[in-house]
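RETRY 2/3 - previous attempt timed out on the joint model. Re-submitting the same 618-residue input unchanged.
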Amino acid sequence: MKNKINLYLIEYAINSLLRQKLKNGFILVIFTLLISLLASIFFISNSIKYELNSTLKSLPEITIQKLKAGRHYDINVDIIDEIINIAGVEDAIPRVWGYYYFENSGVNFSIIGIDEFENQYKDSLKRIIKENDFSKNSNEDFMIVGSGVKKILDENYYKEYFNFIKPNGSFKQVNIAGVFDSSLQLEANDTILLPLKTALEIFDMEENMATDIVVKVSNPEEILTIASKIKLLYPDSRVITNKDIEMSYQNIFDYKGGIFLALFIVSIFTFFIIVYDKVSGLSSEEKKEIGILKALGWKIEDVLKEKFYESFIISFIAYVIGILSAMSFVYIFQAPLLSNIFTGYSMLKTSFELPFVLDFTTLFLVFFLSVPIYIAATIIPSWRSATIETDKVLR
Amino acid sequence: MIKIKNLTKIYEVNKNNITTALNNINLEINEGELIILKGSSGSGKSTILSTIAGLSKPTSGEVIINNERISKLPDNFASIFRREHIGFIFQKYNLIPNISVKENILIPLIPQNPSSEVAEKLLINVMRKFKIEHKKDDIVKNLSGGEQQRVAIARSQINNPSIIIADEPTANLDKELSIHFIDILRELKQAGKTIIVATHDPLFFDLDFTDRLIEVSNGELLL
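RETRY 2/3 succeeded.
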């Protein structure tokens, strides 16, 4: 009784691979590395795109900044009433935010001042304020920190509180009241949320001042018109729409994407050299073996099936190991070196984590770029040898 | 019955290098016969064997085995025919050197995908018959010449073919092992196999169980 799958043929293919351990081992290693590099590029790119899209979705429609000597300067919150009166404006919210450079670890923290009684410009802030109950701590200086900040503070033995150095050189001790995780890793991991009063004190800002003002617009079609009106009202200000920010993000992404494209081309090129080497011919031993098999009654399709199993085993193992190692490299080890190409400022910021994005299209794409091509590269020269007259091959 | 009709084989390496290996050969071999083809190197013996086994297509003429025009068969059908009817023993054995005796002998069975019980039974039978069972797990390249030949014979017999073709089977053996091979040949002849041996080894020329001794010279049979 015949088995459906010819296990003898698979066993022969495995033995055939093991017979040339060194050569096949080398191909497996190189192929795995290439697949891993290719998959890593796609995984990082997917994660960054995911982050970028998430960030873009949460951007305020309009941001107003005060300019002084061409530089961003504190803005007076008194103008908010006038902005709210512009037709089409839903809300205008002052923001107090900035960076705090923590020299011990060489990183920048993002600081956001929160007035719990005012509207928040982002849903994530509302959620964090609600979860951490700002009113409970309102009589003391406290902060809610992102998990990345907490990690760095712990490493520097700031378990309970942190001493900020104010612009005048004095210290400001602030208790750590809570830690939050955010779905927007790129933005929130390095963030410290402080009561508005504390943030103003750390930044040495006056009470009626803000870093900028964000304007919410109900109808996205009116954003540009409202932005022009604001600019007319306050010619000394810089009015930035969400489209402007999106474009600048996209430009950076595209530029960095170009570097990734170069890496992608290099890996594909290397892969095709291997493929070319395979297609260009079999060794005399390999040709002779095909001749022997045919002389012993193997049909051309039997030879090709055996070669299919050989190449499938190598390429599929390389694919699985390559994908798993790329996943580990990107999502567990956070893609050292490669991710820096995209997030080049990581030396100054707390580490941002690449979120896990399982994209089946990417998995299929890498599969079709590797496994079938390698199989074809193995089968084509074998087919050529198998179709030569057996006697010629054996002579 | 094997019929060879007007068989011609010309090898054309290039326009200036054309060799006529076989020139209008005619031969009939009956079932159960043992034929010895003798002749010097390059006389055309191996080409006759290759053509009978369907390993090489004739330039003209044909080979008919059991009413099947083997020389006209497409490649895949020729392979199936070889698998079912022909056991080929090559001069240099043509074993796969880096795999075991057992794996080498099983090669002709692989495309048929038999059950493991059937394969095991056939394997043990031929290994016992050709006294190589004790070496079944040894890697072929580590065996002596005589042992390698026994593996090659066992491999040629695993499918129990009715026709055995041997090309210079004792060319790499000493006299003792050559005599042992002749003993094996006698057993195969007694088992009713049709056997064609191409050789220039004088040991084969006076065998008492040979049906015909045919000389091959310059691609022609000297009958």
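Chain A touches chain B at residues 1-3, 6-9, 12, 15, 19, 288-289, 292-302, 387, 389-392, 394 (CB under 8 Å). Closing ticket.
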